[in-house]
Design brief:
With about 500 residues, the chain is mainly alpha-helical. The protein has two domains: about 375 residues, no CATH class; about 110 residues, no CATH class. Helix 2 packs parallel to helix 8 and helix 7 packs antiparallel against helix 8. It is globular, with a radius of gyration of 24 Å. The C terminus is likely disordered.
Amino acid sequence: MGFFKHVSNIFNFKRSIFIGGLIAYGLTAYNSVGFHHEDEHFQILEPTLHISEGRTLDDLPWEFSAQMRPTLQIWLTFAFSKICDGLKIMNRFDQATLMRIALAIVAFLSLWRLTANFLRNVKSPTAKFAGLVSVAFLWFMPYLHCRNSSELMSALAFVVGINILFRETVFAFFWGGFFFGASFWLRFQTAFMILPFSLYLLCARAHWRDHFGFGELRWRNRFVYFAIIVAGAALCSMAAVIADRLFYGEWVLTPWRYFHENILNDKASSFGVAPWWGYLRSFFKGGILPIALLLFGSIILFIFQRSRSFITWIFIFFLVIHFLIPHKELRFLFPLAIFLPIIVANAADFFQQKLAKFPRPFLYTIYLIFSCVIAINFSALCASALLPAEVHVEALRIFSRADREHSAPVSGETQYFSEHPFKFFARNLSPNIFVTPLINNMQDREHYLLNVGENIPTASSRCKTVAQSWWPQLPKFLDQDVIYTNRFAPYILQKCLAR
C-alpha cells in the first residue's frame, strides 16, 4: 500500500492543488471563446439587446415570443455588460471573456467548498485528495463551469445555497433558500434537484451517514426552518417575476408557459426524441470512454453505498425524470457534475480499503491502468483549456481586432448578420467582413454558422495546404454527442482568416 501512503503525503500539497485548479479554470475560461451549445448565445447574449437596443421579441428565438424563457440570467448578463461599458471595456468579446473568467472563479471556489464541506468528516486522506483533485483537474470540470449557460448558472446557485446551509443559522437558511430560488429561475429543470433535496432536509436523521438536514429536530422546528428557506426562495421568485415583467412588458408566469409549451404541447419533442437509455449512450460517447466508465461505476457505487445521502436522492430523482422526457441532450445532465468530485472521493476511499487485500502483481496492473487514465484525462484537460469552445466565434473575435476595412469570403450558406439576429458582437466587427449574399431559405434557419473551412482565402499557400488536407473533413465523422464536435477541425483553418 505504498502507493496510497504516497498519495496521502501528496495531500499535504492542498494549497498547490487549489492554485493549480484556479489556473486550470482561469485558462480554460480565457480560451473557451464562444459557446458549447447555441442556447448559450441565442437564449442569453442576444436577448440582452432587447433590453439595451430595443430588439423585438420576434427578432429572437421562438421561446421569447411564447414568453416561456426566464429572464433573470439575461438581466444579470446585461448588468455585467453595462459595468464593462462603464469601465471602458467596449469590446463584447472581451466582456464575454471576463464573464467566463468571473464565473469560472466563483464556480471553482463554490465546488471546492462544497466538496470540502461534504468530506469534512471523512478520515481518509486519499478520499479527500481524490475529491479535491477532481474539482480542480477532472478534464471537463473547468470547461463546463466557465460557461454562461443556464445549466451552469442554475447549478452554481444550487451549490452556493447548499454551502450557505452548512452554517446552520436562521440567516443562512433564508439566504440558502434565496439561492435555491435563483437556481430554479435560472433553469426550471433545477426543480428536479430542489424537490428531493427539500424532502431530504425534512426527513434526514442525525444518525444517517453523511447527515445533512433537520432530522434531529422536532417536526415543528423542522417546518419552521424549512419555512425560512421557502421565504428566501419566495423573495428571489418575486425579483424574478418582476424581471420577466420588465423584459416582456407584461405580467407573465414563465414556468407555466414553459410547462405548457414543452410538456403539454410537447414542443420539445420536435427537436428530436431518444429512448430512455439515450443519456447513457451520450454519456459514454461524450465523456471519453475509460474516464466515463470509471465515473459511471463510481456513481453506481455511491448510490448503493450512500442510499441515504441527499446526493443519491437528487441523482435518482433527476435522472428518472429526464429519462422519461422524450427529448434528450447530454447538456441537460450537466448540473449533476457538481457532485462528481464527491462521488470520486467515495470511490477512492472504497477501493483503497479493498485493494489492500489483493496481491502485489494485481495492484501493479491497477496502478498501470490508473496511470493511463490520468494521462488521458490530462491530455483532454489541456485540449479543453487551450481550444475555443466554438471556433467560429473565435474567428469573429480575431476579426474584431483586424482592420475595419478587412473582408473575408464566407460560405454562401452561412452568415452571421443581416437578416438573422446574430448581432451581439456586431458593434465590434466591420460590415465588410461578410461579402457573400444570403441564400433564399436563410430566414427558415434558426441560426447560422460561419464555415471557415469552405471558403478560406486562396492568397495564402499555407491556407491552401490546410484546405486540401483531412482537417476540414474531420467534423463530418464526429457524432453530435461528442463534446468536442466542431472544435478541433476548423481550429487551424480559422487562423488563416485573420490575414
